[in-house]
Write a structure and sequence with these properties.
Layout: H1 3-14, E1 26-32, E2 37-41, H2 54-66, E3 72-79, H3 89-97, E4 102-106, E5 112-116, H4 117-120
Parallel strand pairs: 3-4
Antiparallel strand pairs: 1-2, 1-3, 4-5
This protein binds tetrahydrodeoxyuridine.
Residues 19, 22, 24, 26, 42, 44, 51, 53-55, 77, 85, 87-88, 91 line the site of tetrahydrodeoxyuridine.
C-alpha cells in the first residue's frame, strides 16, 4: 500500500472519531510488516483523562485482531482540524513497543511527510531492554 492510500485509510477512520469535547477528530492507519491494515480513531470520554488517541486505538485493535506478535511497519495519522498531526508522546511509546519503523502525516497542503520512527522517538526505551542476556527475547 502506498502513502496516499494509508493516509486515505487514516482519514476515513477520523470520520468515525468520537471527539465531542476537543472537536479534534483523528484517524490512524497502521500497516503491519505482514501487510495487514488496521485503523483507529480517537475516542473521548466525559471523564476527559480517559480519552484514547487514534494511534493507540489502532494498535490495540491490531493486537486484538492479529495477536501479540504484530510488528508495525508504518503508521499514518490524519487530524481533520490540523495538519500535520504528529503522534503524541504516549502514542510514540506504544508504537515503539511494536517496533514501528516509519510515520506518515500530511502537511498543510495535504502532501505526505514520511519520517523514520527514530526521528520521532530517538534513544527510546523498548521491550528488548527487559530481556536478560540469556533469554533470547522469549517470555
Ligand atoms: N489525539 C489523537 O488521537 N492522536 C494524536 O496524535 C494527537 C491527539 C486526540 C486526543 C484527543 O481526543 C484529541 O486528539 C485532542 O487532543
Amino acid at each position: 500500500m502506498d502513502h496516499a492510500a494509508l493516509l486515505t485509510a487514516a482519514r476515513e477512520a477520523a470520520h468515525n472519531a468520537y471527539a465531542p469535547y476537543s472537536h479534534f477528530p483523528v484517524g490512524a492507519a497502521i500497516i503491519t510488516t505482514t501487510g495487514e491494515i488496521i485503523c483507529g480513531c480517537n475516542v473521548e470520554n466525559a471523564a476527559y483523562g480517559e480519552a484514547i488517541c487514534a494511534e493507540r486505538n489502532a494498535i490495540t485493535t491490531a493486537v486484538a485482531a492479529l495477536g501479540p506478535n504484530i510488528q508495525v511497519d508504518t503508521v499514518a495519522v490524519v487530524g481533520l482540524q490540523a495538519a500535520p498531526c504528529w503522534p503524541c508522546g504516549a502514542c510514540r511509546q506504544v508504537l515503539r513497543e511494536f517496533n514501528c519503523r516509519g510515520v506518515i502525516v500530511e502537511d498543510e497542503s495535504g502532501s505526505p511527510i514520511q519520517l523514520p520512527f527514530a526521528d520521532l522517538l530517538p534513544h527510546s526505551f523498548g521491550p528488548e531492554a527487559l530481556h536478560s542476556p540469556d533469554d533470547h527475547g522469549e517470555h
